[in-house]
Write a structure and sequence with these properties.
By secondary structure, the chain is of the alpha+beta class. The chain has helices spanning 81-94, 121-135, 162-165, 195-226, and strands at 14-18, 26-32, 35-46, 59-66, 106-116, 145-152, 155-158, 170-178, 183-187. The chain contains four helices and nine strands, in the order ββββαβαββαββα. The protein has a five-stranded mixed β-sheet. Strands 7-6-8-9 form a four-stranded antiparallel β-sheet, sandwiched between helices.
Length: 227
């Protein structure tokens, strides 16, 4: 058992809801443990200025933001280096799922706002953004689910906590995955593990993504059942 009482292969409690922002084309709320993210999508819409347009596909633009109150010590409101880097990672994770070739000369803008941060913010942002894209009616090959697995001490674990991430003996492996396509859209490695351990971590991460995928689908179905 881990410090929060979970098994090594167990996710934190998850909440997911779509259609939470009326002014966006699509939106979602995703919470895993104490990490909570709002996502909004605008587009596809004509891209200006025109010299930025791609005549063959839509341009996907992602913006990852941490609110000033999302962490114990107030965060500066302007985006830092880490936020710029994670914006790029989220774009890389989501773009393979989108039929960008269907919408030439347009842009799809994806905004994610971390309103409470307690480990796994990039993966939660990917999950929220994927739901928001689906809510906006953007044609997709599949939803993208994401979670971090890794090694803490000698144990292989799923969905790391902040305490585990901050451990000196921690290797963190965020994974984004399209289950129907059986395709990993993003994988990162922060730390050192053996090849065999990495295989085990990836296998556990995919297991977690499959569980999140079912929760994502239920959130979408709930909206349309209510309608």
């Amino acid at each position: 058992m881990r410090s929060d009482g979970r098994r090594n292969d167990e996710l934190r409690k998850i909440e997911a809801e779509v259609g939470v922002i009326s002014s966006a084309d699509g939106s979602a709320y995703f919470k895993i443990g104490n990490t909570a993210v709002l996502a909004a999508v605008h587009g596809p819409r004509e891209l200006h200025p025109k010299h930025l347009q791609d005549p063959e596909k839509s341009i996907v633009r992602c913006y990852y933001n941490m609110t000033t109150f999302s962490v114990p010590e107030r965060k500066p409101p302007s985006p830092g280096r880490r936020e710029i880097e994670l914006s790029s990672m989220i774009k890389r994770a989501l773009t393979p799922a989108i039929f960008v070739e269907e919408f030439p000369r347009t842009a799809i803008d994806i905004y994610t706002y971390v309103i409470e941060a307690d480990a796994g913010t990039r993966c939660a942002s990917i999950c929220a953004a994927s739901l928001a894209l689906a809510d906006a009616g953007v044609p997709m090959r599949d939803l993208v689910a994401a979670v971090a697995a890794g090694k803490v001490g000698s144990e292989i674990v799923l969905d790391l906590t902040k305490e585990e991430e901050d451990s000196e003996q921690c290797t963190d492996v965020p994974i984004a995955y399209m289950p129907n396509k059986d395709y990993i859209t993003l994988i990162q490695l922060d730390g050192e593990v053996s090849l065999e351990e990495l295989r085990e971590i990836i296998k556990l991460g995919i297991k977690g993504c499959l569980e999140i995928y079912e929760i994502q689908k239920k959130a979408l179905r709930r909206k349309y059942v209510e309608i």
